[in-house]
Amino acid sequence: MTCADLSDVLDLIAADELTADAAAAAHLSACPSCAQALDAARRLERLLRGRPAPLAPSHFTSRLMSRIRRATWRREQIVDWIFNSAMIAAALVVAAGLWIAFRHTGLSAVSGDAINLFGSGMIAAAQKVTPSLPLYAGATGLLLVALGVWWWASDSPAL
User: Fold this and answer.
1) Residues 88-127: pLDDT tens digits?
2) How far apart are CA 155 and CA 159, in angstroms?
3) Domain ranges of the chain
4) Cβ atoms of residues 48 and 15 within 8 Å
5) Are 100 and 75 in contact (CB under 8 A)?
6) pTM recorded for the entire structure
7) 99 vs 136: CA distance, rounded Å
8) What are the CA-CA distances from residue 67 to residues 51, 60, 71, 155, 159 (Å)?
9) Torsion of the alpha carbons at 12, 4, 23 and 14, rounded to the nearest 10
10) How many CA atoms lie within 13 A of 24 on its CB side?
C-alpha cells in the first residue's frame, strides 16, 4: 500500500468508520509520515466530537425551501420551453408530412373530383382513395397523439 492509497481512507480510519486492514497497518507501522497524519486525524476527530453541533439559523428551513422551490420552478420553465418547442416542431413535421402526402398521393385531385363523385359513382372514388387511407389515418393518429401528450403535460401537476 502506498501513502496515496492510505490518504484516501485515513479519515475513515480515524473516525472508526473503517478498520485498517493488514496492508494499511503494515504501512502505518513502516511510514512515520502516515502514522503522524493518522494521529493528527484522530486528534481532530476527538476535538470535533467534543464540540456541540451548531444550531441552524432562524428561518433556515423556510429560506432553504424557498430557494429549492425557485430552482425547481426555473428548471420546470426550461423543461416546459423545450417540450413546447418540440411539440411545435412535431406539429410542423406533421403538417409538412400531410402536405407532402396530399401532393404525392393525388388527394388534391380527389377533392376536385368530389363534385363529380355522385355523378361518376361512389365505387370509383372509393377505389381511388382507398390506397391512401392508411397514410392519412397514420398522420391523423400521430397528430392526435401529439396533441394528447401536449394536453396531458400541460394539465398534469408539477412534481
Assistant:
1) 999 999 999 888 877 777 666 666 555 554 656 667 767 7
2) 12
3) 3-50, 60-155
4) no
5) no
6) 0.37
7) 11
8) 30, 11, 6, 25, 16
9) -20
10) 16
